């Protein structure tokens, strides 16, 4: 598999759109197009291999499933993971002759995504730093009463930041990086220590993402029960991700109904107590 300049340019464009708040807000930009799960589909369509793109996206999403940016602090940039890491992982999988549905392909994708995601933090902070210049222009426009200029500050000038720190790096890394990945095919054979180490590290990376997610969700020991039940069902019955998601939906509905029943019961008790107090006052 090779990546043409046109394909690399399309990937760079989506890297810009994935981090542009103006594109329907962060919900459509960063939190939709920027997610590896969605980026895998986009990369698969652009590179002509949807299956491999989705598999790489799913594998990388596990690693960054609980990634948040509190106060603008990021440990990895999913924009780079989605539109640099996934294309390079797809090229590496084809170059090594690995089956896209194999465990080795998923582990290779995780390792590639983690490497690029760390590098992507430089692009993230570079974009934020350059945006400070546009912010100063906006404050100056407000002081001068030139409010129409704020449209340029909000919609035009940030594109310069993203073209410099999103489009151009993605274009270059996807085009030249693909050639470099292909050239490493002979230098790093599948049965070599380097590739085995890469696969081993990649297999462990989802544990980090799941652990971070559990730290945010688990409040008490009993919260682990549905979590372990899902793993038990997957291991014993051989359920795939879709079937496991359906089972988790059932658990979510059960817990929701239990919580709603508790709220209704508490409301009834409070209402009953209030009624008795009124009756005593009337007497």
Automatic annotation (TrEMBL):
Keywords: Cell membrane, Membrane, Phosphotransferase system, Sugar transport, Transmembrane, Transmembrane helix, Transport
Transmembrane segment boundaries: 50-68, 80-100, 112-134, 155-173, 193-214, 226-256
Membrane association type: Multi-pass membrane protein
Subcellular location per the Swiss-Prot or TrEMBL entry: Cell membrane
Recorded GO CC terms: plasma membrane
Protein name per its UniProtKB record: PTS sugar transporter subunit IIC
GO biological process: phosphoenolpyruvate-dependent sugar phosphotransferase system
Pfam families: EII-Sor
Protein source organism: Streptococcus hillyeri
């Amino acid at each position: 598999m090779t990546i043409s300049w046109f394909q690399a340019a399309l990937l760079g464009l989506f890297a810009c759109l994935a981090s542009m708040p103006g594109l329907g807000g962060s919900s459509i930009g960063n939190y939709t197009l920027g997610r590896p799960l969605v980026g895998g589909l986009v990369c698969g369509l652009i590179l002509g291999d949807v299956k491999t793109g989705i598999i790489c996206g799913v594998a990388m999403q596990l690693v960054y499933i609980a990634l948040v940016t509190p106060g603008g602090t990021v440990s990895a940039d999913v924009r780079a993971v989605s539109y640099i890491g996934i294309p390079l992982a797809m090229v590496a999988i084809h170059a090594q002759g690995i089956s896209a549905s194999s465990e080795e392909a998923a582990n290779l994708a995780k390792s590639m995504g983690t490497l690029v995601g760390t590098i992507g933090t430089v692009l993230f902070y570079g974009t934020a730093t350059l945006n400070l210049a546009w912010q100063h222009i906006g404050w100056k426009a407000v002081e001068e009463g030139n409010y129409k200029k704020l449209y340029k500050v909000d919609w035009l000038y940030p594109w310069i930041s993203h073209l410099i720190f999103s489009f151009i790096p993605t274009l270059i890394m996807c085009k030249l990086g693909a050639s470099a990945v292909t050239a490493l095919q002979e230098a790093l054979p599948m049965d070599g220590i380097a590739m085995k180490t890469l696969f081993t590290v990649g297999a462990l990376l989802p544990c980090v993402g799941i652990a971070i997610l559990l730290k945010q969700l688990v409040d008490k020991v009993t919260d682990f029960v549905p979590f372990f039940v899902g793993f038990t069902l997957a291991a014993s019955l051989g359920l795939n991700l879709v079937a496991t998601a359906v089972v988790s939906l059932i658990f979510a509905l059960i817990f929701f109904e239990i919580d709603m029943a508790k709220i209704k019961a508490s409301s009834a008790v409070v209402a009953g107590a209030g009624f008795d107090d009124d009756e005593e006052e009337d007497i």
